[in-house]
Amino acid sequence: MRIHAIALSALLLLAPNAFAEGDAQPTPIAAAQANNIIIMIGDGMGPAVTTGYRYFQDNPDSEEIEETVFDRLLVGMASTYPAHQSGYVTDSAAAATALAAGVKTYNGAIGLDSDKQPVTSVMRMAQQRGMSIGLAVTSQINHATPAAYMAHNEHRRNYAEIMETYVESPADVMLGGGRNYFTPGMLATLKNKGFAHITEYSKLDDVASPPVLGLFGDVSLPRSIDDTNPERLSLLTEHALRLLGQNPNGFLLLVEGSQIDWAGHARDIHGVMSETKDFAYAIEVVEQFVRLYPNSTMVVTADHGTGGLTLAKSREYLWQPQVLHNLTASLDTIAKISMNNPGWEAEIGDKLGFGLTQDEWQALSKAQQMDRDTGEPKQFTKALKALLDTRTNTGWTTSGHTAVDVPVMAKGRGAELFIGYQDNTEIATKLMSLLPKQENTAGQQAHTEYSASKRIAVN
């Protein structure tokens, strides 16, 4: 079990209102209900990714292959297909709407059904019941997955409109990227609503209570391995738990390992494994939290697979991910070194962390020469990916999404509900069943008015 910079056992002191056994007690809940719900989505994290992570993390010097947090918490699988008109392969928006609201919809839809009518997410339902809500993601906070829990829009690319929703009806804790999507007026509005606005990880310690807007990248966060804190998602998750836990009525938190998907689109095996590692550390943080506070529920899944990852692409029965541990930067960062740098060979060799054969150096040199005309290291990046695929014996079938079922992990109150096969919409409806039954009337009215206004906008 890995614990990050903040010791989770100290959360009892950091957030006493929600968890202490003393004077401040949570609202009483039935045995089948959860006071706190944490939904964790590994975007693009198909079953080959979690399997590959097991071997990536394995100690080759031991006889046993060690289990990972994915193995330890696995309870079932989920189908991912969108509404019929979109076929069998979903995008992140349709999948997130299914996971958030229990409704199949068309690819691209944010919080709408196939008729473009708003549907209510489990996050907004929690808010209606007086629970705090929060986001901790490695993409921009208005990207498809978090947006489906927070907003209603006919297309995921309408980032500005989606962000307006976040200002009109914000979550209590919003942590991720997205500085470029906030206007000064939006920030002023949130400030008037009491939000602390921070842009550096170190400032999280200064935030004593919600609400808070933490934007740590202009768009997304930097790649995990390039970030000042490679374990940035577990850090954001710990602070979100600390802050949201101050509500005696409980909370609902969405955590997304967003960039697993992006690395899959790029067919970058090093990126997939490093982003999955960051996500796995965040899961371990929440797993420990649920052990400390068993009136909580955690559910971990993916929205779809990406890239068609194959562990052993040739007839040789071999997959060797250990070489990936040597890299000290992302492939994009390493590729940029090749541009206008007379000493690129030595610096790239240092970043890769392993020796290259003469043929490998020749392939990189050829790619570097091809990139001189464009001024962009695209061919060099492609050559680096091919090098790692050959070294590890990794294969890919696509640069897009796949239609595979995805793993489901669960722990805590109601975890048994997620055992076995289920459709992704059932994950939402099962989580809804764990919410407190009593709704907050003011919260319900505010959401109804908001939905009505947006219904006009999206039709």
From TrEMBL:
GO molecular function: alkaline phosphatase activity; metal ion binding
Cofactor: Zn(2+); Mg(2+)
Protein's UniProt name: Alkaline phosphatase
Cofactor annotation remark: Binds 2 Zn(2+) ions. Binds 1 Mg(2+) ion.
SUPFAM superfamilies: Alkaline phosphatase-like (SSF53649)
Gene: phoA
Residues where Zn(2+) binds: D43, D261, H265, D303, H304, H401
Alphabetical list of PANTHER family matching this protein: ALKALINE PHOSPHATASE
Species this chain originates from: Paraferrimonas sedimenticola
InterPro entries registered for this protein in UniProt: Alkaline_phosphatase, Alkaline_phosphatase_AS, Alkaline_phosphatase_core_sf
